[in-house]
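worker-3 :: picked ABC transporter ATP-binding protein
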Amino acid sequence: MIEIRNVTKAYGDVVALDGASMSVDEGATVGLVGTNGAGKTTLFRLLVGHATPDDGTVRVAGREPTEGPALRERVGFVPEDAAFDPRLTGREVLELHARLRGVPGDDRAERVERVLATVGLADAADRRVEGYSNGMTQRLAVGTALVRRPAVLLLDEPTAALDPRGVEALHRVVDRIRERTSTTIVVSSHVLDEVDRLCERVVVLDDGRVQARGSVADLATDAADAVEVRLRPVDGDARRAAHDAVRDAIADAPSDGAVESRGCTLVVECHRAVAFDVVAAARDAAALDGFEVEEPGLEDAFAAAVDDAAMVDDPAVATTNGGDRA
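worker-3 :: tokens ->
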């Protein structure tokens, strides 16, 4: 559904995208994450047809940026700071956008009703927008993008100005879109927990380049070999016995590890390959109320991708490793 190949885009002396490549399958929900200035906004401008690449190719739903209106008919874009005429009702806003986007008149009313239900505004459809909360306004913005039934939906920092209840309501909207349609969704967000919650796949953009891409689980697994094992001994004596047993277990491991007491819990940092040995040693030595093993998460994957990119761009490191880039 989205194909970006070796795309470069510069604004004067500033290179916003530098040979970026990525692809997104139909119906996928993909998170786009990166530091400020990484190139996310420029990438969205290319996808929605507001800019064309200096070099490389961009295709969205079979269209190219040069096709302008034809491309925009296939792409729905929701900006971070959407705003509407406060005198209009939610229904009137959607009806206006349906007319502007060429929805046939005999289909318009039903289309608007379906969109109101999808974005959770059916009960507030006839209230003026001036009385909407930030969360309701953002869901209405999603609705304006949905009236044309886009093949691709781009959400730019969709929950940046929302409170926790508004965030959860918008997340439910995204869930409904995924369940009811084959729309391809790209979410640009600084909130890694949000990307983890909504997206099956992630693209990490840094300094105009795609530094990592893949499923959330695979990127997290590749990010670090270390895991955290939390053991809960039944009492103080058990905690001391488990501590000694775990200390000996990680001392014999091929990689570094550490164990510390945090209240009644023993926290062990170790290589994932010895996590089972750590738990087995503790259970052999002492009675436990339970244990958990925490794998690396998306935050670890993001940090690893950005840190690796910074090391490659460091002249001293480039000299040491021969200047190879991932």
